[in-house]
């Protein structure tokens, strides 16, 4: 579904050229849930922004459904740590924004969005304003807004990191089950290793200076088939966590030594 081939990103300043991302190549299959992990500054979010068409790579190819990505596309939806709901609009008006921007707004798409809002437990909040909702509720509304235009690829940049732990775990399960039910493909950027393991089919570990893929982990089948909270309690979770953790420590120690 998605292919990155030898993607590089160089930022030019008055003093120097800084290579942020180097030779990143990867494939994401339809329906997969993939995570990017690694130390701060390793290029995870840069790669996500390149996939979204928000940044142009210095070189390399990004192909989604056999079409090269050269800018933002209706095929992708983006969900961030901040919900970015407009405070002066009701929740209904907020979730309809994506439909308006993509010229997909009509009675059917509006009703589909409201039905999804209902399914995610916010049906009675359609006429409420963002300030009247908790952080978890606002992130659910942001999820509906992202899904309303029916993108095929979802890009999630630390969407749960600002939430309290209990809300975070509940929302992980909700997002995971919603995306699986709708057969969506997703890429998650996270600093939370447990979250990456609990939600993913595959994990890409990035290293820094410049940002590049250090290792790819296939999550065990017994974890992939469970909801994130169930996966965290599975006997296979801890051994796999330790395997990934040791490799992450190598990368972070290398990052610290070159800082």
Automatic annotation (TrEMBL):
Record's keyword annotation contains ATP-binding: yes
Domain named ABC transporter: residues: 2-229
Domain of life of the native organism: Bacteria
PROSITE patterns: ABC_TRANSPORTER_1, ABC_TRANSPORTER_2
Keywords, alphabetical: ATP-binding, Nucleotide-binding, Transport
A molecular function (GO) term: ATP hydrolysis activity
Pfam hit, one: ABC_tran
Matching PANTHER family: ABC TRANSPORTER ATP-BINDING PROTEIN (PTHR42788:SF21), TAURINE IMPORT ATP-BINDING PROTEIN-RELATED (PTHR42788)
Protein known as: NitT/TauT family transport system ATP-binding protein
Species annotation: Alteribacillus persepolensis
